[in-house]
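sorry for the late reply, my laptop died twice this morning and i had to redo everyting from scratch. anyway the thing you sent over, i finally got around to it. pasting the sequence first so we're on the same page, its 144 residues, then the predicted structure underneath. double check i copied it right bc i was rushing
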Amino acid sequence: MLLPGIFFLLSGFLMAGTDAEKEAEFLAEHSFEVTEVEVYYFHRNRRCGPCRAIENLAKKTMETYYTQEMQNGEVVFRIVNVEQQENREVAQKFRVVSTALYLNVKNGTEEKASNLTGFAYRHARNEEAFLNGLKEQIDVAIGK
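ok and here's the structure:
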């Protein structure tokens, strides 16, 4: 009885690994003129080690690869505490109540959000995989 339950949980984690790839394929196939790419790291007041690692790695990815794009407004990076009143609206927009990583591609009023939280937790302890994976997602979104 325990073995099928473990298999179910593991298969969920393994299948979640393809979510980011599917989102990248979707964005590439259904591309539209991108006006802005937003990367959001959401968190609560109390955070675990992997949650802090996700923030640090997301920040490092943005500072390493997208300094110019952030300066010219093509890419925006936001760290959002979902427990602060001023952030409630954006947290509700993405239906986030705790740690999450989102990539949001905007074209005027049209938006396409990708939930990268599964990817982020999976690679929170592997800096190279995290940086390369997030960079790949953002590159697809901005058409690099």
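Residues 2-142 form a domain with the Glutaredoxin fold (CATH 3.40.30.10).
thats about all i looked at so far, will dig more tmrw
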